[in-house]
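Provenance and format

Records in this collection were gathered into a single text stream. Each protein contributes a sequence line and a token line. The two records reproduced below are adjacent in the stream.
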Amino acid sequence: MNKLIVNLENITIALPEDKVIIEKGEYEELKKNANKGKYMTMNELLELLSVSRPWLIEHILYRPSIKQEIDIEQNPKGFVKYPSAQGGKYLFLASKTKEYFEKNFREILIGA
């Protein structure tokens, strides 16, 4: 491939006030940390995964091998707060929930 070299000395590029330029590594780190400390609701998780509520509950949330790993009452490193009574709310720690589904995609779907 031929190269064209252009001398850009003495040229100023103005960025709009709402834009910044950062290193790619810093950008990736910002994306990774965007969900730290945030919670997801069941509806947000269903939207993220594009599955039905009954499927999620049956094949993931109440599969014993998964529940013991993700339930905060069964595992100190868990990231899901199960409802204390029927009709109660689930809460998911967003960063760990997304990471879990990314890392375990194959195992979850094969075991479903």
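Adjacent record:
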Amino acid sequence: MSSKNQVADGLSTTALETKTYSVAKLLDLIRTGKVRVPYFQRRFRWQDEDRRLLFDSLQKGFPAGTLLLAQGAAPAERVVLGGFTADVGEVKEALWVVDGQQRLSTLAMAFLDERSGAYRPIYFDLETNAFVLGARKRAPPPHWVPTHVLASSALLNKWLREGALPDEFSDRADQIASRLREYLLPAYLVPFDDEYEGVVKVMFARMNRNRHALSTDEVFEALHATREGGKPIDRVRAELTQVGFGEFEGKQIERAALAVAGKLPGAKLVDALSAAEVPALFARVSQALIRTVEFLAEDCGVPYIDWLPYGGVIATLAKLFDAHPKLHDRNRVLMARWFWRGNLSGDHRTDNKTDQPKWQAIGSDQHETVQRLLKLGNRIDVAAEVEAPLQPFNRRTARTRIELIALAAMEPRWLIGEDRGQPLALGALIEKEDQVPSAVTNASGTIVDYLLHPKFDLTKLGTRPDKVTLESHGLDDAMLDALLSGDDATFQAQRTKVLTHQVQTTLREWTGVNDADHDRPPLDAYFDSESA
């Protein structure tokens, strides 16, 4: 039936339709390609327990929320929803998911995907009469029914026959299967075509914004996505990924855009820009962030974004490289000092109060800009941190990341294999989870207990690597002997001396705290108002 109530501007009084769908009907619509995910939707965000709780709600008859579906034509394409993937034809009246993607994706991956392995499977435990999460690589108990079996009477009957379960369990399985398939989800249907597309996007952003389901960058993406250009933040993220520095978070790109646009750190991008400003701004943001990545990798020695001590530095650097695409070589040296000092003092934490003066320091004269940024730092704290001993290892902390980057400056080489003695491509190895760093002792005290090298069996090392290769890891023959004999204490004592010296010496050089030049600007600054 059609609602007679007046709705938001841009939607006629009869355009909003209400309807209910059974889970079985929704699954049929998904199978036939009649349920689609619009280009402005976000990624799947639910955790395993969120998915299990949805099934718990369906079992108990709890409300599972109202769907918002936009009805309109859909092209022939590959449809991906949850774990379900299919090549489908053109549909004249498809249902585009505006609100309810997480729920429908959960239903699809549970009922239509027979274990892709991408997510932990959900089962119905016939003994406890409850939905449970299973393990990815371990077979479930015989009384746990896979959810995809519950979606089909034929599959369920076959599963029950093969399992030879008690009649009580069979009856319980039939009951829960019927309850799930017959569960009714209410839905609002709105038109989705060229006339209403903008209205639907606003509805999506406003609904999620009001209940805080979307982050600010996701709201921005929803409002400014286009069929041709896609999502502006996602587009920049994809361009940056090609550089090989890792994947930026949406909120990092959003904050960089705020800085480049000349807005305050506390502003919301969705409120700060008009649609007309977005394409040109994000073209600038992309270029500024590419220059930022080059600076971080080449001038600061950061091999991968996951090792960045503080992500708050990205927006400031983006604003700097937007204003001054070609920094003077001397200014690049000074900005590398600024980068490392802020990491050691904690000044590069994401903080509106500390970021605002940094952003405001960036003006039309690059020499004055760099000098203003340097003066904002706290050199007393930096000097103390430079001389600090090695800290407890925790790759989530800024200090451990700083020490790891200082070790990376030793240019570690392969210790094994055909490439032994050749430099490691750290960025590529860091990208593979748990590859680098790898533990070499049973302790996890400091970086001393780790190598910037993929894990391998030390007893199968074979011929000793040469001196240069060992030294690239802060090792020598004596340390290797101690390690192979199981004498961790001797190994740790000897390597602690070497790595402490390496970290402290490297940080002194990078921060320039003891340099006699006192952060002198380039000589050009005394003759030119602006240098290319």
